[in-house]
Amino acid sequence: MKLYPLFADLSRRAVLVVGGGPVAERKIAALLGAQAQVTVNAPTLTPQLQRWTTEGRIAHRPDAFQESWLDRVWLVVAATSDIELNRLIATFAELRRIFVNVVDDAVLSSFHVPAVVDRSPLIIAISSGGEAPMLARLLRERLETLLDHSLGALATLAARLRKRIRVRHPDMAARRRFYESLFAGPVASLLRQGRPDAARQTAEQALASSPVASAGSVVLVGAGPGDPGLLTLRALRALNEADVILHDRLVSAEVLDLARRDAERIEVGKQAGYHHTTQDGIHALLLRHAQAGRRVVRLKGGDPFVFGRGGEELEFLREQGIPYEVVPGITAAVACAAYAGVPLTHRDHAQSVRFVTAHCQSSRDTLDWTALAQERQTLAVYMGVAELGGLRARLIEHGRAPSTPFALIENGSRPDQRVITGTLANLAERAAFHAVHSPALLILGEVAALATSLAWFGQPPLGATVHAIRTLPAGHPIASDVLAAVHRA
Ligand code: SAH
């Protein structure tokens, strides 16, 4: 190791920055964050540096750099575009034994400025010793996504309780267990929920009670439609912290791959046709694992509150007194629309959108078909592949035009996505012709006509006219069998 990492307290300490451009501005912003007393030396300043000077937050010396200024500063930053001047500053600093950073020059610098993830008072600094700054930045971005912003509040809370925790748990191992439960359990979760007072109370209770009860919890997480890029940062963090993951069959393997390696994965999937774990069975599993003190992630396709029975699971957890959180996911309708190039609303074509399911007789009988058959609205139909004939009959019976366009999206957002287009009149036949399977989502309404012209992901829609396909830009990845299928259809 050539560099010795250290965190410097610069509050109320004088620092000189030579240079008045955007790089100097960035350095000064960070120095001001650390409450340093900054003097900037440059003939001209960026507008922001000028503002800070006017506001009295920094001092400005427009005259030529003078060696004697270094006598009263703790650090100096050389951020000019003049290589000779930078070198001179570095030499003078060296003679006076003060640390110097020369921007973009690892050799002349006696201190480096790391890439930083700031969860103050917790700070993570990353350095590659100037060898691979881009890699350090990339790592910083990764950590930035992994670490919740409430971590700072957690560190502050832990600092406040630190003395009392030491007295309460003089044994090192017990103390470590207490901290672990503080950092991973309900206290951390309350802080994420923006409830600092409840978090403090819970921490106080944990400190008062003995022995440390490790309370389990459940996070209900929406996994989105399949493309792991559509996970939220919250979902990713929950997957990273999970001890157990109870997931639906619909959740893609790519998403599960992102979970903590040693987390136990249990499929509680349900698929049209057969249910291999009943809802009561899922409730029992949630309860068992949470009561054993584990952090349980209940991972569902799309969004947990859209046709996901998330509500029932929360009702059950509430009855049982198990703490929970909910992380929303991108629901199939929203994802399929985006990945098929079908805007769900459009000023010219649709003023409203309805999410409906029509997978069984009782759900069909309770729907308001007159309302569903209205013009200029979009229907996003979940779980409907098997019932397209019945759906069509009811909609036409209630006045929807047979010429209403549809887009049927199978495996939306996944590499094997297919989009079938047509009109309400030939909906069931076109789906049967292309042997559409679950999961598939139907978008019915005027907007669906745009699927042909706005498609951007995967194969072009099946049902596009041969003409539309011929006018695709050169090099578009359209296979000849797609063309053949279009001819047949
Ligand atoms: N909670 C989920 C929906 C569960 S119901 C959500 O918010 O998306 C299951 C239905 O969702 C499927 O039958 C299908 O209609 C739809 N669906 C889920 N993922 C899909 C995908 N990747 N492509 C197309 N439809 C999907």
Automatic annotation (TrEMBL):
The modification Phosphoserine is found at residue 128. Residues 218-427 form the Tetrapyrrole methylase domain. S-adenosyl-L-methionine binds at residues 225, 301-303, 306, 331-332, 383, 412. It catalyses: uroporphyrinogen III + 2 S-adenosyl-L-methionine = precorrin-2 + 2 S-adenosyl-L-homocysteine + H(+); siroheme + 2 H(+) = sirohydrochlorin + Fe(2+); precorrin-2 + NAD(+) = sirohydrochlorin + NADH + 2 H(+). It holds the Pfam family TP_methylase. The active site is at residues 248, 270. InterPro entries: 4pyrrol_Mease, 4pyrrol_Methylase_sf, 4pyrrole_Mease_sub1, 4pyrrole_Mease_sub2, CobA/CysG_C, NAD(P)-bd_dom_sf, Siro_Cobalamin_biosynth, Sirohaem_synt_dimer_dom_sf. Residues 120-144 form the Siroheme synthase central domain. Residues 216-489 are annotated as: Uroporphyrinogen-III C-methyltransferase. One of its GO terms (molecular function) is sirohydrochlorin ferrochelatase activity. Its EC number is 2.1.1.107, 1.3.1.76, 4.99.1.4. GO terms for biological process: cobalamin biosynthetic process; methylation; siroheme biosynthetic process. Residues 1-203 are annotated as: Precorrin-2 dehydrogenase / sirohydrochlorin ferrochelatase. Residues 150-207 form the Sirohaem synthase dimerisation domain. NAD(+) binds at residues 22-23, 43-44. Pathway: Porphyrin-containing compound metabolism; siroheme biosynthesis; sirohydrochlorin from precorrin-2: step 1/1; Cofactor biosynthesis; adenosylcobalamin biosynthesis; precorrin-2 from uroporphyrinogen III: step 1/1; Porphyrin-containing compound metabolism; siroheme biosynthesis; precorrin-2 from uroporphyrinogen III: step 1/1; Cofactor biosynthesis; adenosylcobalamin biosynthesis; sirohydrochlorin from precorrin-2: step 1/1. Keywords: Cobalamin biosynthesis, Lyase, Methyltransferase, Multifunctional enzyme, NAD, Oxidoreductase, Phosphoprotein, Porphyrin biosynthesis, S-adenosyl-L-methionine, Transferase. NCBIfam families: cobA_cysG_Cterm, cysG_Nterm, PRK06136.1, PRK10637.1. HAMAP family: Siroheme_synth. Then it catalyzes the NAD-dependent ring dehydrogenation of precorrin-2 to yield sirohydrochlorin. Finally, it catalyzes the ferrochelation of sirohydrochlorin to yield siroheme. In the C-terminal section; belongs to the precorrin methyltransferase family. Belongs to the precorrin methyltransferase family. This is Siroheme synthase. It comes from Rhodanobacter glycinis. The gene is cobA.
